[in-house]
Write a structure and sequence with these properties.
Chain lengths: 310, 262
């Protein structure tokens, strides 16, 4: 298929006065793409728009070139979705729940059962096939949600916070499944607010904040993007006001925040030079501790959203 | 249609499993309690007459709308309120298919309550309605069979139309209980029994067309909500009920495309 797996153009959604998503323009081809953002950033709104569960206030979505709107059902032949909310089919056994959805998807009899067995096997839940969903842990139900999304092995998989509540082995198994999917020219959009989960599986990110696109691309590209943004060093010790005055006079800082008498946050566009300067001015022991933000994904995200998002 | 049947089975399981049938059964059996009092303490009660003049109208006024609401409304409301309807609406089938399955499953789940509503009081009445000779007894049994079967038929057919209305409100509104109460009880029962030409715009008008023909009722015991004087024919009644059901289902399918799943 030559059309991108997902294309959104000016996609916006308002909930009354509240902005859920604002003018989102993204194009996703294949591979695993991480959709990052804190709670309320618009991830689930985007997922619902991608699956036609809600109407867009403006803009549109295309799935493999087909316009997705509420009621449009043909795209679900190429799209599997594991929503963020719990399953809520408490009284159903896992196999019956999956069988229901397999049959609703057009399969019948033995072929539906075959699909259910395969999906359960892939997520390692075959021994729990006859357990009712209400008797399962949240992590197990999460895996069943993933199983229903991969029932038809669609070329596009949308997973909304799939690792929530999973124990470490289940996480590993689910992440392996996602990796396996991405190795077969399929597309997986994995939404999460837990950054290291996404960091562990993909380098391709879409970051949302307050319904807006904060950044998109490779993690390394995003890092480059923020190279020009201030970095922060935090020092603790005594006589910090003298150090602050000296650094300000030498125009090394883009920002400075005092936290009490013994803590100083220093913002700079050139962290390396600042650290050298601090080595000199703190040589007489005034600085007791020095911390800098790191370049891990958490730090990148915090920096992009101004530290207010989490 | 494989998907429709699967969802039908799911919805039916959901509504009859565990203690969920208790409330509809309690509603269905409430008139039986009153009937029992009438049979026990009434002055020379005629059981068949009591069944026709009390139980048939009460079943149409009270049992039908409330059992239908109790069974049909949660079918959709639970799925929508929890966002679980999304599992059905993100499949490669048009939304009317799972909706139809939910409707049929809910409708089938009303049948045990309606069976209880007609059979339990009939058993009570027949136990005291003994004829002197065999021939009279045979004729009486035939009349009883016709009355009980007729009432069951009216309830089951009417619940198709009433259930479709509940389904429509379940999809279209976030307050389906309020709308259903208005449509089934206010518009149906009350408006449908007010004298005048306006009766024919109420769904209840058509139920009495069937009840008069199939159960033989022409008057009621309490004097309240007297049955319509000129009920429609069976054909017109069936057409009326069928039309309401079809239009409601079509509107529900349309509404399902419009309503956001949040």
């Amino acid at each position: 298929m030559s059309a991108p797996a997902i294309k959104t153009v000016g996609l916006s959604r308002w909930y009354g006065e509240v902005q859920g998503l604002a003018g989102l323009d993204v194009t996703i081809q294949h591979g695993v793409v991480g959709l990052l953002g804190p709670n309320g950033s618009g991830k689930s709104t985007l997922m619902r728009l991608l699956t036609g569960q809600i109407h867009a206030s403006r803009g549109y979505v295309e799935i493999f070139g087909e316009r997705m709107t509420p009621g449009h059902f043909k795209s679900f032949r190429v799209l599997g979705h594991a929503p963020g909310e719990d399953i809520h089919f408490e009284n159903e056994r896992a196999c019956d729940f999956l069988l229901l959805l397999a049959k609703l998807g057009g399969e019948s009899g033995a072929s539906a059962r075959d699909r259910v067995d395969k999906a359960l096997d892939r997520i390692g839940m075959t021994p729990k096939a006859n357990v009712r969903l209400r008797e399962m842990s949240k992590g197990m139900r999460q895996r069943i949600k993933v199983a229903q999304a991969i029932l038809f092995e669609p070329p596009l998989l949308l997973l909304d916070e799939p690792l929530n509540g999973m124990d470490p082995p289940s996480r590993r198994q689910t992440l392996d499944l996602v990796r396996e999917y991405s190795n077969t020219e399929r597309t997986v959009l994995l939404a999460s607010h837990v950054l290291h989960e996404v960091d562990a599986i993909t380098d391709h990110l879409i970051m949302l904040h307050h319904g807006r696109l904060l950044a998109e691309g490779q993690l390394s590209d995003i890092r480059n993007l923020i190279e020009q943004k201030p970095r922060r060093a935090t020092i603790r010790g005594k006589g910090l006001t003298q150090i602050a005055a000296k650094l300000l006079s030498e125009d090394r800082l883009s920002g400075l925040t005092m936290e009490g008498d013994d803590c100083l946050h220093l913002d700079t566009r050139d962290l390396t030079k600042l650290l050298l300067e601090l080595q000199q001015v703190g040589a007489d022991g005034q600085i007791e501790t020095l911390e800098t933000d790191d370049q891990k994904l958490d730090a990148v995200y915090d920096m992009l959203v101004g530290g207010s998002a989490r | 249609m494989n998907g429709v049947m699967t969802v039908t089975a799911f919805a039916w399981r959901q509504r009859v499993r565990g203690l969920r049938l208790l409330a509809p059964l309690a509603i269905a059996l409430l008139p039986s309690l009153v009937l029992l009092l009438g049979l026990t303490f009434g002055h020379n009660p005629d059981p068949l007459n009591l069944y026709r003049r009390f139980l048939v109208p009460v079943s149409l006024y009270f049992v039908l709308p409330f059992v239908t609401m109790f069974v049909m409304l949660p079918v959709l409301q639970e799925l929508y309120s929890k966002g679980a309807i999304g599992y059905f609406f993100t499949r490669p089938v048009p939304r009317w298919q799972p909706l139809l399955g939910l409707f049929l499953g809910g409708w089938l789940a009303t049948i045990p309550a309606f069976l209880a509503a007609v059979l339990v009081p009939a058993a009570m009445c027949m136990a005291v309605d003994q004829a002197a000779d065999t021939e009279t007894m045979t004729n009486l049994t035939e009349v009883w069979m016709q009355t009980v079967g007729g009432l069951f038929g009216v309830l089951v057919l009417a619940s198709l139309a009433y259930g479709a209305l509940c389904l429509l409100f379940g999809v279209w509104s976030k307050k389906p209980i309020l709308w259903s109460f208005f449509a089934l009880f206010i518009w149906g029962v009350l408006f449908g029994t007010l004298p005048g030409d306006g009766q024919m715009w109420s769904l209840h008008y058509y139920l009495f067309g069937l009840a008069r023909e199939w159960c033989g009722i022409t008057e009621i015991w309490t004097g309240m909500f007297p049955p319509v004087e000129n009920p429609p024919t069976v054909f017109v009644s069936l057409m009326g009920l069928g039309l309401v059901m079809t239009v409601s289902l079509l509107l529900a399918a349309f509404a399902a495309r419009q309503r956001d799943i949040l």
